[in-house]
Amino acid sequence: MTIALFGIYAGTALGAPPLPRPWKSGQHGRVRVDSSVLYEGQPSFSIEFGFPPQTQIGPGLFTAKYSVISAVYQEIKADQYRGRRIRWSGYMRTNDVGSVWNREPPVASRIAASAERSPGAGLFVINDSCEATVLYAMTRDRLIGTNDWTKVEMIFDVPVQSAIITIGFFLSGKGRLWAAGFALEEVTPATEATFDLDLTDEQKYDYTFARHKKRLKQYARSPYAPVLLAK
């Protein structure tokens, strides 16, 4: 899984209503704020894919079985989080989440992702520094199938050289996801970090001069603290 797969820098989906700032979305699926599905009285975010089994839309679109991924995310300054251990958490509700290619309804559970089996809904974090852009995404605790509101979380360390933190959530494969009840908070160093994704060259990107200039602009317009509600 890479930043490119999330479509993070692709902008908001064409024809979709804008999300409340500073939230953004990738270009796949139907992404919106859903005021009809509430979590503790607050609207939720919704991502929906409606592909039928064995779908192929044009040549070369599906390069892998589970290449359909959409994300909702926001970027914040890392200033107050540098050198600390942080918990990024939220609540998710899912309906029929599973592989685009799977003809059978998925069984509600949490799965261990692999190259052969990687649909699901979960959280992700990106740490940007002057040295590298590093992506962490949930694998073991992704949600598949149909689930009522379920808490999901990741615990990660923010490097002292970090400039921007991107926090978000994603849906991979078909189905529908609702997400709400987010929190970004410091935890004690004794709290075990949950790096579900082993870093490889695919997930760690050299910080080029061009990317550095772009990040300086993003840093200048990013808030110091996240906006956690879907409104």
Show the helix and strand layout.
Elements: H1 3-6, E1 24-25, E2 30-39, E3 42-49, E4 69-77, E5 85-98, E6 109-111, E7 120-129, E8 132-137, E9 142-157, E10 162-172, E11 174-187, E12 204-206, H2 209-221
A few lines on this structure:
This protein has 231 residues and is mostly beta strands. The chain is built from two helices and twelve strands; from the N terminus they run αββββββββββββα.
What report would you give on this structure?
- The structure is a single chain.
- The protein has a 6-stranded antiparallel β-sheet with strand order 1-4-10-7-8-12. A 6-stranded antiparallel β-sheet has the order 2-3-11-5-9-6, with no helix packed on it.
- The protein has a single domain, classed as Jelly Rolls (Sandwich).
- A hairpin with a 2-residue loop joins strand 2 and strand 3.
- The longest helix is centred in the last third of the chain and has 13 residues.
- Helices cover 7% and strands 46% of the residues.
- The N terminus is likely disordered.
- It is globular.
- With 231 residues, the protein is mainly β.
- The protein is built from 2 helices and 12 strands.
Number of strands: 12
Terminal Cα span: 29 Å
* Helical segment count: 2
User: In the residues, how many domains can be counted?
Assistant: 1
Widest sheet, order of strands = 1-4-10-7-8-12
Q: What composes the largest sheet?
A: 6 strands, antiparallel
CATH architecture assignment name: Sandwich
Overall pLDDT level: 77
Radius of gyration: 17 Å
